[in-house]
Amino acid sequence: MDAYLVAILTTAAIYVILALALNMQFGLTGLMNFGVVGFYGLGAYSSGIMTETLGQPIVMGMLAAMIVGGTAGALVSLLSIRLSGDFLAIVTLGFAETMRLAFNNEDWLTRGPRGFLIMTRPVLEGLGRDATAWFILGVFLLVAAVVFVVFNRLAGSPFGRVLRSIREDDLVPATLGKNVLAYRLKAFVLGSSVMALAGSLYAHYVQTVTPDNFTTQVAVLVWMSLIVGGAGNMKGAVLGALVVTAIYEGTRFLAPLMEFLTPTQVSALRFIIIGTLLIVVVRFRPEGLLPERIVARPAARDPAPG
Amino acid sequence: MSVARIEVDGLSKVLGGVTVVNNVSFQVDPGQIMGLIGPNGAGKTTMFNLISGVLRPDAGKLRVNGRDVTGLPPYRLARHGIVRSFQLSRELDRLSVLDNVLLAAPSHPGETLGGALFRPFAVRRAETELTRTAREMLALVSLTPHESKPAGALSGGQKKLLELARALMAGADTILLDEIAAGVAPHLVEEIIAIVQKLNRDLGKTFLIIEHNVGFIRALTSRVVVMAAGELLAEGSFDHVSRNPAVIESYLGQAA
Amino acid sequence: MKLSRRLFISSAAVALTAPAYLRTGLAQSAPIVIGSMTPLTGGGGPYGPEKSDAHRAVVAEVNANGGVMGREVRLISEDSETNPEAAVRAARKLIDADKVSAILGTWASSVTLGIMPLCQEANVLQLFSGSSDYLPDGDSKGLIFNLQPLNKAWAVALADLAVQRGFKEVAFAGPKNDFAASMGESFAASLQALGGSIVGEPFYYNPGQASYRAEAEQLIRMNPPAIFMAGYVTDFIPVYRELIRGGFTGQIITLSFAVGPDFKDAVGSAADGILHGSPIPPIGKDSYDAYLKLVGIEPNGQVQNSYGCMAYDEINLCLLGMEMAKSTVSSDVAAAIRQIANGPGDRVTTFAEGKALIDAGKPMNYDGASSSADFQENGMLKSRDFALYEIKDGKDEIILTTTSDATK
């Protein structure tokens, strides 16, 4: 059971990182990014290509992922930056779909539907099976912690204040001298490069990547994590990802309790539970489990987190 | 002769096929408190939008401190020393009242990505000082007890005061106030008049004020321009223009 | 996190104390745990339940008659969601939490390949049905067994058919997925070996589109005498319609699962003339009928539950392998499975028959419900029966059956 919990926590760490990134884009800045899996997948394949095809060490892979993800994010937001928020939603949807098709069809680069086998792992050689799993978990938790600290600091800083003001009203910050377009771009790129980083970690963990790994379902789980946990609050994003992962994986263990149901029915029931959770949260606590903190603490110490 | 703070030179704007501002020219001199009055629909707020860069003029030129700033976006105009309030007050609802004011601080080191990440001490220092200043602004408009509330929780009149505090915090030379007294309790209107006069007298701030409240205009402004149906109808002291028959007629279509 | 931890612990505790296995009166030694991962949702959703049912039916019967090595067999079912991402997480639970010795039943090749690195690392046996030619590449320990012929074998059979009917120039079209990709390569190679050739390049289209007019037009422009289409029914129907509408008069050759009753209903008489083929369970064979009856289906002389019968063989081979090896260590079991499946020995078709021979110390040759279940070194089938049909008056008329030899 230990090994399974380690595996679940490792997956949860990836979703935590994705949720933090989406929080930077949507929770703080109000940017609707429905193309999460596009950047995630881009990071996975970039990292894989860097380490497998070009033979570089894994750190180079992670760096490549972030650069590619950040650049893609810049291009995507520049495309729609002068349009209203709804257009960004559509553009990002289109981007994710385009990426999926590209992954599938450009098989000279990505091995397409066959699957891209990745042998490079974020771990020291020679450890036993259990130790390897713990080591990888440690690496992922470290990355998640770093992302959390950085993003949380940004959220509580004056920079974060400007982002939130842009979320509320894009005219007021402009008339107060803030370059709204530049801030939006920065927030989006910060988010997209971190999503790509998550993709890189994912790729080196599961070791086989196919275009099928990057489906809407992943994006839905990330959005759910944010909504359940509390958009606008970095701690909320972390909590939301953990809760959603726990429910998704925990419901597997319901099967032995329900011998009277067929496996097909149990499987359907799991999805019903997950969907119901989302409905309940949106209905009764739309701001999430950890809502955004509005009050600024007196600036005797650091600017307020949240 | 010092350079005008704002020079509007033949500005025109067409919106939805209607000429909302038609070849209007006037200027606001440094240290002046100028009124912009006229019946509803005259194009006053559109003029504000043109001056603050929210709208781009279709014709004409805009100069600030002698520099041609026609067509610049709002954030660039703001850096030329212009700040405005909004007629339908636009609050950043989910930010605290204090944060709303702090946002207006110009050149805060913590607002850049690099500053926020790599210069914690400078940022903290700036934040402390600016918070002190922001609190002074809030005190000026009697909003101190509401400092920690989300701005969305304020009443309509209070939101107007917040607009003023924010405009003051921005430290701009030229302040555009769009119906700042509307919906504000009378004793606070008196306070606003006092604040504006103080800033004008002691700090030399220039004001361009859109207002329907006659007492407000008469008490504050040395000069007004009158707009009606997108055109400049008259210019001069308030007493002077209020006797102008064309001005009176343009208002006759309105309730007083 | 307190909440989720409590959930884990309490659920695990309840699962462990579930009294189900106590009731069967078997020995109190630890049960043999086997994972059944089938597509219960997603693209393979129509085919998962019959596999899962086959697994459960056999396990119930085996447990009622003394289990394996006198121990109860506990089957844990998971949904692969026909998606490798979800399947990997389910596999981790099966391997690390449930500690299964084998994972049976995966259907989509991307899923099978997706969980293969985990299974290989944990020395977990995999028995499955899949056709991607890339499947053997993921195994380096001899722990996989595939009950379905690879695309290479299908392609050989169909290329043979095409040439026999006088078509040496055939275009190839299929959706851009794992299955069609390897099918295209193999078909081209087989055709060439018979002296024919592919017209132009294999043409791949993106599955799941709203309209295929552009694709159909491109195919028509190539003007081939015949097209071999390797699609699933969801994309085959619209593409075929566009081809007919566009005036294509050449021969269409395809795979049987693309032209089932849904297709015939959708296009009516326009279906006539299509040639198609697929691997078939040996209709009328005693083991096949026995499987059907076990899961409560009356044999009717047509192809039924083509995936369920493979699942039946998966679980039988796995359990017999464990019984013969007297162990759940995967390498031992794999070696035993090879002996059981390939023989030589007396013919057996069920677990009970095989167990009797094991107890008597005699060798056996398992003859399955889906095929004779003889494996090559790499765990792929040596051969499989194929049937080739032509649609006439809305019905499939069998033209010939052939046994495709995958070792060629």
TrEMBL record, chain A:
Q: One MF term from GO for this chain?
A: branched-chain amino acid transmembrane transporter activity
Q: How does it sit in the membrane?
A: Multi-pass membrane protein
Q: Which UniProt keywords apply?
A: Cell membrane, Membrane, Transmembrane, Transmembrane helix
Cellular component per GO? Answer: plasma membrane
Classification via Pfam families: BPD_transp_2 (PF02653)
Signal peptide residues on this chain, from the entry's feature table: none
Q: Does the keyword Transmembrane helix apply?
A: yes
**Which residue spans traverse the membrane?**
6-24, 31-51, 57-79, 131-151, 187-206, 218-248, 260-282
Q: Which InterPro entries match?
A: ABC_transp_permease (IPR001851), LivM-like (IPR043428)
Alphabetical list of PANTHER family matching this protein: HIGH-AFFINITY BRANCHED-CHAIN AMINO ACID TRANSPORT PROTEIN BRAE (PTHR30482:SF10), HIGH-AFFINITY BRANCHED-CHAIN AMINO ACID TRANSPORT SYSTEM PERMEASE (PTHR30482)
Q: What is the protein name stated in its UniProt record?
A: Branched-chain amino acid ABC transporter permease
TrEMBL record, chain B:
Which InterPro entries does the record cross-reference, listed alphabetically? AAA+_ATPase, ABC_AA/LPS_Transport, ABC_transporter-like_ATP-bd, ABC_transporter-like_CS, BCA_ABC_TP_C, P-loop_NTPase
Q: Name one GO molecular function term.
A: ATP binding
- ATP-binding in keyword set: yes
PROSITE patterns for the chain? ABC_TRANSPORTER_1, ABC_TRANSPORTER_2
Q: Which GO terms describe its cellular component?
A: plasma membrane
UniProt KW Transport keyword: yes
Which species expresses this protein natively? Primorskyibacter flagellatus
User: What sequence ranges are listed for the domain ABC transporter?
Assistant: 6-254
Q: What is the designated name of this protein?
A: ABC transporter ATP-binding protein
The protein's UniProt keywords, in alphabetical order, are: ATP-binding, Nucleotide-binding, Transport
What's a Pfam family in this record?
Answer: ABC_tran
Q: What is the lineage of its organism?
A: Bacteria, Pseudomonadati, Pseudomonadota, Alphaproteobacteria, Rhodobacterales
From TrEMBL, chain C:
Q: Which residues form the Leucine-binding protein domain?
A: 31-341
Q: Which UniProt keywords apply?
A: Amino-acid transport, Signal, Transport
| A single GO BP | amino acid transport
Q: Name one Pfam family in it.
A: Peripla_BP_6
Tagged with keyword Nucleotide-binding: no
Q: Which family does it belong to?
A: Belongs to the leucine-binding protein family.
**PANTHER family membership:** LEUCINE-SPECIFIC-BINDING PROTEIN, PERIPLASMIC BINDING PROTEIN OF ABC TRANSPORTER FOR NATURAL AMINO ACIDS
The protein's name is: ABC transporter substrate-binding protein
Task: State the organism named in the record.
Answer: Primorskyibacter flagellatus
